[in-house]
Design brief:
Elements lengths: L2 H10 L1 H5 L3 H10 L12 H5 L4 H20 L3
Helix pairs in contact: 3-5
Length: 75
């Protein structure tokens, strides 16, 4: 799988990659039970240079949700 191509698809069509909006992805991150959550954000920051603030805010919100979930740890 070409991760750069995958990152580009997410940036241009976020719903097509996962079938979820950034808000739905954040909700899923918060709702995931268990000891481990894995998240990969590859090539996102450079792509944001050519994007608007909406995409930047969405990406940062997703990263914040991942960070909060990892800090929360297992129930």
């Amino acid at each position: 799988m070409d991760l750069k191509e995958l990152a580009g698809k997410w940036m241009s069509q976020p719903r097509r990659l996962s079938g979820q909006s950034p808000t739905q992805m954040i909700a899923q991150i918060h709702a995931t039970p268990g000891c481990v959550i894995a998240a990969a954000v590859f090539g996102l920051a450079p792509a944001l240079d050519n994007r608007g603030s909406t995409e930047t805010r969405a990406a940062l919100a997703i990263l914040q949700a991942v960070t909060e979930r990892l800090e929360k740890g297992a129930p």
